[in-house]
Every structure is written in C-alpha cells, then in structure tokens.
Amino acid sequence: MRNPNSNPANLGLKRSAITLAIAAALPLGTAIAQEPQQLPTAKATAQTEDSYKVDESISTKFSQPLLETAKTITVIPQAMMKDRNVDSLQDALKGIPGISLAAGEGGAPPGDSMNIRGFSATNGILIDGIRDIAGYSRDTYNVEAIEVVKGPSSATYGRGSAGGIINLQSKTAKLEDFTDVSLRLGTESDYRAQLDTNIMIGDDTAIRVNVLADDADKAGRDEVFNSKQAIAGSLVTNIDKKSRLTVNAEYQKQDNMPDYGIPWVSNGSTPVAELVDYVGTAPPVDFDNFYGNVFRDFEDITAQSLTAKYENDLTESTSLRAQFRTGSVKRVSVVTAPRFIDNSTTTDVRLSDEKTRDTKDSLSVLQLDLLGSYELGKTSHDIVTGIEISKEKFARWNYDDNGTDNLDTTPELVDLYDPDNYVTFTGEYVRTGKNSEATGDTTAIYIFDTITFDPQWELTAGLRYDIFETEYFYDQDGDDPTVKLKAEEKELSWNVGLVYKPAPNGSIYIGAGNSFTPSAEDLTASTRGNAAELDPEKNVSYELGTKWELYDGLVFANAAIFRSEKTNALSDDPFDDDRDDTLDGKQRVDGLELGLVGKVSDELQISAAYTFQKSEVVSATGEDVEQIGNELPRTPENSFSLWASYQLSDDILFGAGAQYMDERYNSSSTSGREIADDYLLFDMMVSYQATDKLNLQLNATNLTDEDYIDQLGGGHFIPGEGRYIGINASYSF
Question: Is residue 206 part of a domain?
Fold first, then answer.
C-alpha cells in the first residue's frame, strides 16, 4: 500500500509564507528550521492511502491543519472516491450535504453548476488553486482529492465564491515505480478503462501518465450517453537540493448526448385538466423520458491545459512557488430544451426550442507565492503572500441552421407521455460568424498571516486586492459589431479567524469573510437592463464552530453554525420599466453543519455529514417584492450523507451509504417557481482482494431505483441516475 505521506517532501510546503522583503529583513536566528525539501508533489491529503480522514487542506493558502482552520472544509480523498465509485465531480459532490446542482439553461451550458450555502459556485471551481474555465462536466480520473471550502472566499481566490469554492487536486508524479490498470463493466452496456503508471528516471525525476477511455449510457435516462477519452502526463524533478519543477499536461475529448431533462408544469400557467394537480411540480411521466432528438442533438467538448510549477527553498524558513497555466475548452453543441407548445390546450412538447453553442474559453494564469514560518518575539507567524495575474478569453460563434431545421420550422411535436426521439431531422447546423467576444484581466495581491500566541490561541487574517477589468463585445455579427460593455472592478476582500484550543486535540473558532460577485463574473456581462453598470454584489459570512480529533486522532468531528448574507442583491428597480435593477435586495442563509469522518475501529470506517439551511429573501424592490420571505433557489433545508465501510476479513471490504436531499425550489419568485420533492438514495459496495495485485469491486448506486430530481432549471429539470451496478477489476504491479 502506497502512503502519500511516506515521502517527507510531501509535507515540505505545509507552512505559510512571507514577502521577500520581510524575509530579507528578518534575522536568520528567528527562523524556524526546516529539513531540506525533496520532490513535494502535493500537500498531504490523508494519513494513509486507504483513509477517509484528511488532516490538511490541499491548498497552500490554508497553512494550518484543518483542526486549526476557522472554516468548514471538506476534503474527499482518493480512498473515498474509489470506494464510492466516483467518476465525476458531480458524483463526488453528492456526498457533501448542502450542495445542490443546477441544470443548464439558456446561455448556461450543461455541466458542473451548483449552489453552496444558497449561492452559486459555478464559477468557483478550481484545479490546483487556479480557477477552471467553461461549463463542462469534469471527470475524476486524474484527480487525487477534492476540497470544498464553504463560506465566502474572495480573499483566498478572488471574484465570485459567494457560497464557497471547490478545488480539485491533480495527480502528479511520485518518487516510486507503480502501474495500476482497471476495467469496469456495468449494467448500461458501459465500460470504463484506466491506466495510471508512474516511472522513476534516476533518483530525482519521475513521470506519471493517466489514460482514460469511458463510454456509458446514463441509467434511468433514454438515449442519454457520455463518452470520454483523456490523457494526462506529469513530470516532477528535483533540480537541486533546494528547487523542484513540476509540469502537468492534460488533453480530453467528450462526445455526449446532452440532456435538458423534463419540462416543469409551470407555476405561472393554467394547464389542461389532466395536469392541474401537478402545477409547480414535475408532470406525471416516466422519468426515463427523453425529449430531445437523437439525429440533431449532440455535444462535443475538447479541453486541454499545460501547467508548470517551480518551487525553491530560498532559506530554511522561506519558500518560493511560481505556477503558470494555459488552457482552453472548446464546445460545440445542439440541445433541445423541453417546452410545452401550449399546455393550456395540449400536453404536446415541441422540439423547436433548440439551444446551440459554439464557444471557446481560454486562460493564462501566473501565480507567485512566498511561504514561510517565523518567530517574532513570543509569537510565531505562518504567512502566505503573493500575486496573481490572469487573462481570460471567451468567444462565441453563431451556430445556425440557416432555416434548414425541419424540427424548428414546422414545429414538430412529441407526446409528453411517449416522446419520439427519432423524428426525421433534415437540417444542418454550421458556424456562420462570431456572435460575441469577451476578455477579463485580473491583477491581484494577497497576504495571509496566522499568528500563534501560545499553544491555545491562534489568529488568522487575510487580505486580497483585485483589479478585474472586462470587455464584452456582444453584437459582433449584428448591426453594430463594435457594441461592447466595459467595466473595471477594484475590490478589497478579507477574512479573519480566531481559534482557541482547549485541548491539543480540539478547537473552538469564530471566523468571518466576504466576497464580491461582479455582473461579468463569467466575463459575459448581462446586456439586459443596467446590470453591467452596477457595482458587484457582496456577501459576508460569520461562522462559529468546533473541531475535534477523537480515537487517538483517527476520527475527525466538526460542528458549526453560520450566517451568509448577500447585502446588496440585485433587485428590480421600481422606478424603471426597462428591466433595470438596483442593489437594494438582501438575501440570507442561516445554517448548521455537522460532520464525522475516520476509523472508529480497526474494521469500521465512516464518513457522515448533515447540513441545515434556512434561506430567505429578506428584502427586495419593485416587482421582486413578491420574493420577500421565500427561500433561495436550490437551497434544501435539510440534507445528509452517510457512508460506512467494514473490513469483513483480510480480503473482503463491504460498504454502504445513504444520501438525503430535502425539497428545493428553482426560483425565489412566488408566481413562477417550481418545487422538487425530497429524496433518499442508498448505495453499496463489496470489494474482494483476490491476490496481492488483483482487486475486484462491485458497486451499486440508487439501489431502490428511486425517481428523483437531481438538477433544477427554470423551465425544466434533469432526473438523477437510476439504479446502476458495475463491477471493476484493478491490477497493480
């Protein structure tokens, strides 16, 4: 069994940082000595490779152990993902209560879109601490761990992150030789084949290659499938005793049948008699029903990235980290949005509401960090300081049928209860010109300092100053190709946390922080009304919690109460009829978080969490006053997740779990919102270690084949996966 902590280098950068100026000014005698660092492929993510418990954040910006960090942070390690048969980011997040998924709609493509603590985190997804781009579904074949940080996080990662962020840690090379191959076959005539090989080149260099081939239908959904081919490579080398270089590259292609699910019976309409009892909910149809067209609908995605990271131990107390990434995501797709033709007279669903996308997102990012530990008088300081410079680009082309789509021009109708997915399609969609283009330039400087006064008291404070400049050309193929929106946001973000340790294995903390969300958070500022002219929305959060390590440090327990508040939410301008907004709204989420993870005995390991959220529109103006008192979209009041694994014998491991999600609304508007019912799902796993090298594992998800609503959109919802059983064979050598 490989232990990611067995290499002392993996622990090398766990302390914090300071500026070169401060580092140079400090006497060497005040520094805390550290051992020379060798090949730190990543911060440690678990005590052992098969442990669910994680001691530290995967981000260098959180310098203290999780026990002493004044935030609710959940890290999903490789062991948990393997046991639960996690293939995608969405699969992984289903095990974290309080996160609710959104469906693609209108200008937002299908992909990883979710809310954390009541607020959108779609643009708060990062890979190795760098903001990821574009809307697409992320696979976990090259992911070592996934971290969810709850609460506003602009001081740590910049714009957005009102409810929290999600950070994926990539697999990187290690100083050892190994090869793992696996093949999974499932009940959907699917397969998933993976190769993970790591090779040492001399004593100081290693390369690692991960390869994926995946083709699967979605259980419980007619016609929906996802196909992926991907390869990722990593090179890590010790340049000398004090410096290291890591280079990661990834390329993947996806060929999918996009799914917009099933139409709501709109709360804002009076439907035919047979649907009256279902107003504001799902229609009484088979959740397998697919309302697209297999001859027209498709989704092709190409994603690629190159990342280089250089680390240097400047002194025994100070390290430099420079990280650069360039990457792009291309998407071409046609997807049918299911809509009634006129549900006041018929139950027919039209095929004429197709959504097309031909886009490219690209970015280049440079991060420079200084990390160090210092003693000043009777206090010690763990400091991280750095700068971030990034350029993001978005381009969208018109993808049009030029009047050839017979499904659009007729329009063709399908039956709500028995839709025909094979209606003849005779059109052709092609790129006809550029529709819009946007750029976003970010320059940021930040500093975090954790001050340890004595073994019981710590204070952490952080500041980040962002300059975010955007240009959005939105009518490039129209009457005026020079029409643009331009904005510059200059924002200071902060967080602070005070930790008291009544015992070495426990802490009590209070923390606070803020975030800012500009209208052009995803570069494409709204062209409706005056939203692009308004200041960013702002969130602030307060959290009081406690964390404990139990059972000799093998179990981690946490509890917290929190309040997240949007203090200047967009709201309808009561004095303007042109869809203008003001920043006079207020939204609030109060909640409770509970968690327990680790080994409670030699045989039994568990991961359990519960989240309570009470969300509310506190104030609004104009037509939005009807929202006052209503819940925020996609914010379940209660949710929990439980997973337990039990070592029945030396060779057999059994696992079982449950996930519960309370009912959720898709909007805060009283006159036009729909509700998704609550649901409870059960999963199980049996793993058999046939030989030292061969492992066989059976997983079953949604054992009761529950029909449930997974992703909520405004006009439609996407059902969750039905019962699925897969068996995986993995061989290590």
Answer: yes
Q: Is residue 565 part of a domain?
A: yes
Q: What value does the mean pLDDT take over residues 653-669?
A: 96
Closest to 664 measured CA to CA, from 651, 646, 677: 677
**Confidence tier at 2 by pLDDT (50, 70, 90):** very low
pLDDT tens per residue across span 506-515: 999 999 999 9
Query: 167-193 as b/e, with b when 16 or more CB fall inside 10 Å?
Result: bbbbbbbbbeeeebebebebebebebe
**H or E segment at 330?**
strand 318-336
**What is the model's pLDDT at position 10?**
37
Write out pLDDT tens, residues 682-705.
999 999 999 999 999 999 999 999
Q: Residue 166: helix, strand or coil by DSSP?
A: strand
Confidence of residue 481 (pLDDT cuts 50, 70, 90): low
The strand pairing partners of 545, in sequence order, are: 509, 560
Burial of 519 (0-12, 13-18, 19+ CB in 10 A): buried
Of 590, 582, 583, residue with least CA distance to 565? 590
Average pLDDT, the chain: 90
Name the region of 532 (left: φ>0; alpha: ψ -120 to 50; beta: rest).
alpha
Instruction: Output the CA angle 68-323-241, nearest 5 degrees.
Output: 80
Give the tens place of pLDDT for each residue, 308-326.
999 999 999 999 999 999 9
Residue 352: give its domain's CATH number: 2.40.170.20
Specify whether the CB–CB gap between 265 and 280 falls below 8 A.
yes
Torsion of CA 63, 59, 592, 282, to 10 degrees: 170
Determine the distance from the C-alpha atom of residue 103 to the mean position of all C-alpha atoms in its chain, rounded to a whole number. Answer: 14
Residue 47 DSSP class: S
- 133 within 8 A of 327, measured Cβ to Cβ: yes
**CA angle (34 as vertex; 31, 37 as ends), nearest 5:** 135
- Domain holding 709, by residue range, is 8-732
Please tell me whether residue 10 adopts helix, strand or coil conformation.
helix
**Number of domain units in the chain:** 1
Classify residue 1: in a domain, yes or no: no
